[in-house]
Write a structure and sequence with these properties.
mainly alpha
Length: 59
């Protein structure tokens, strides 16, 4: 299943390299909340890419 929001989250995740640590944490919380509300969103092809970008910039 594709979620329109996932494209926006992916686009935002590609900009995390220039974000502050607080912004990265806020973004991570936002995505976690969305996935909690819509668990099937984890099946979206962009979900794994979003998570990869989060992990890179959460360090």
């Amino acid at each position: 299943m594709r979620y329109q929001e996932m494209q926006a989250y992916y686009d935002e995740s590609c900009q995390l390299s220039v974000a502050t640590a607080d912004s990265v944490a806020s973004f991570t919380d936002k995505v976690k909340t969305f996935v909690a509300q819509y668990p099937a969103a984890q099946e979206d092809p962009l979900y794994s890419k979003i998570r990869e970008n989060e992990m890179i910039y959460r360090l």
